Structure prediction request, 171 residues.
Amino acid sequence: MKLSDLPRGSTVFVDANIFLYYLHGASSECRAFVAACERGDFRPVSSAETLIEVAHRAMLAEAVRKGLATPKSVLRRLKEKPEILEHLSEYRLHVRRIQALLTSLIPTTPELLQRALDLGAGVHLLLRDSLVAAALEASATRRLATADRDFLRVTDLEVFAPSDIRIGSGT
Prediction:
């Protein structure tokens, strides 16, 4: 289903790629969705693991955008020259803003990890996606906003994807 088909008032788990497409301006649908969340049209939930992923990727993108590293060298460059991190602050503001709009943040606990390991083996998901599936269970919602088609293998899950981004695997 399209992200725009998500019923108003719904509780929805938001995957990292939705936030990243929003932050990078890659999807007008993701921008509209986040704005709708800010207005209270939806009850967005996510997990600590998801926010960590968003923060990490947004930090790397900020370094590249500011010309402090190239896409191919960004990780190596930040490890070799950690002082570059002093010049990165926008990603923290973005993550705080995202966290503020969430109605619930599912913690990554040892129990959640164990459940993720079991779920992933059953439907052939990579670990990060398995953590999302386990967090979905913990949040008591079956609605997921994502651009990752791997979640289509999870039964009883309603997947809502932006139609202006090519839905992919591992996005």
